[in-house]
Amino acid sequence: MRSMIRISFRQSMLAGLLLIAALLGWATLRSWLLLEYSIAQSRLTSDYALQLNDTMQELSQSTIDLERTVRQFIVLKDTVLLARFDANAHRCLAAVSRLRQIPRLASEAPINDWTTALSDLSGQLRNAESPEALQATLDRLNEINGTIDRKNRQWIDEQYASIRTKLQQNRVQMAGSIITSFVGAFIVALLMSRWLTRPVEKLEASIARLGEGCFHDPIEVRGPADLRRIGHRLDWLRQRLDELETGREQTLRHVSHELKTPLTALREGIALLEEEVVGSLDDSQKEVVDILQHNILILQRHIENLLRLNALALETRHLNRQPVVLTELLSSVAADRELHAQSRQVNIICQAPESSCLLDAEKLRVVLDNLLSNAIDFSPSGGNIYLDAKIEGGILRIVCADQGPGVALEDYERIFEPFVQGKRTAPAARRGSGVGLSIARELITAMDGQIRLLPNDGHTPGAAFEISLPK
């Protein structure tokens, strides 16, 4: 396994493809060899069958000529006929010799009987045996011929049956080879896929963790050498990002601390001026002190919001999704703002289905609280705020609508930007710094959702914000 790690991704792919090609090639070659063997055996058996048929025809014809010569000699007693008999006997023996050359021929014993009968016939003919004895020997030759022919045909049938059996066996072997090669190729492909995809999945998971801000877990990728190198570079990037993130947080804390220290001194100095500890102030000087006090409070809120946004950036990387009952969530958010609503004499009306969704309840609660706080501040006394939730096509939609002055048209595009407050003022005094909607958008985006300001038709007062989240 250690030696395999040293090869690259490309070499692993090439080795896997070559191994698969070798398996399939082996199956193809073995099937081709089996087929060639079957064809050769079939051709050889056909040649033997043709040779048998030709030889048996020649032997039968020669036997007929032999019998004719014997009958003529019995009648004519001519010695010339003996020479013709010997010539016919020689042709018969040549045919028998060709029969003996065919391997595994089943008619070996009848052939021996045939040569014996021919020898007996030749001796009887030269010893001038009786016609009855010669006829009996001729009948025995014809009977042996029939036996040889039957056994030869039986041998041919057996050879063809053997070929059919062998073809069936070869077909089974070919099918087994093909199935084995395909199964082996599939196993090789599966192993190579696991060998190559595991480090890729590891890289994807590591990149996802980096995107979520998890910089503490080392990244170690096992597999081909080039993917291991990518893993090393990714781990270097993790360390670098961890250093940058740590430096950013430290810088922000230091800057906030450095700003808060002189800011505290300024607030104490202005408090001393406001209390006239260093001497009495005229009206114009008191007005200047009030302006300084007001702006210092604004500056302090901005610094606190910067710290809050920094904490939020870390928060959005970690989601805790759990089943949440929508009616309970909306009722809980409305209950937290009950005193605020009573102070403004505003009614909060919640409506949601009796179903649950897989959500990060804490982050969604922060978003809804920001929307509800703005809606209460901007609603007129005695007005209504509608907090409605519904599920459409697997999407959870929550709308928070009020009856206030709404959002100016020129603020539509920038209302979700940090520290942006709309041009239209609330009926009651507010201390907001314009980061609530920005925080809401960051949290909703972290939950793979969207938040938007619904367009106003001009006839219905107020502003309506819609949250869309996957159920």
Short description, anyone?
By secondary structure, the protein is of the alpha+beta class. Helix content is 69%, strand content 8%.
Question: In terms of topology, how is this protein built?
Answer:
Blueprint: H1 2-5, H2 9-76, H3 80-101, H4 108-126, H5 131-211, H6 225-274, H7 283-315, E1 322-325, H8 326-336, H9 338-344, E2 347-351, E3 356-359, H10 361-378, E4 384-392, E5 395-401, H11 436-446, E6 450-453, E7 464-470
Parallel strand pairs: 2-4
Antiparallel strand pairs: 1-3, 4-5, 5-7, 6-7
> What best-fitting shape do the alpha-carbon axes yield?
rod-shaped
Taken in chain order, the helices and strands follow as: HHHHHHHEHHEEHEEHEE
Determine the structural class based on helices, strands and strand pairing. alpha+beta
DSSP, total strands: 7
Strand content: 5-15%
Helix content: 55-70%
CA radius of gyration: 54 Å
What does this structure look like?
This protein is α+β, with helices and mostly antiparallel strands and 471 residues long. The protein is 69% helix and 8% strand. The chain has helices at residues 2-5, 9-76, 80-101, 108-126, 131-211, 225-274, 283-315, 326-336, 338-344, 361-378, 436-446; strands at residues 322-325, 347-351, 356-359, 384-392, 395-401, 450-453, 464-470. The strands form 2 sheets. Strands 2-4-5-7-6 form a 5-stranded mixed sheet. A hairpin with a 2-residue loop joins strand 4 (384-392) and strand 5. The longest helix is centred in the middle third of the chain and has 81 residues, at 131-211. The chain is rod-shaped and about 180 Å long. Mean pLDDT is 80; it is low at 1-5.
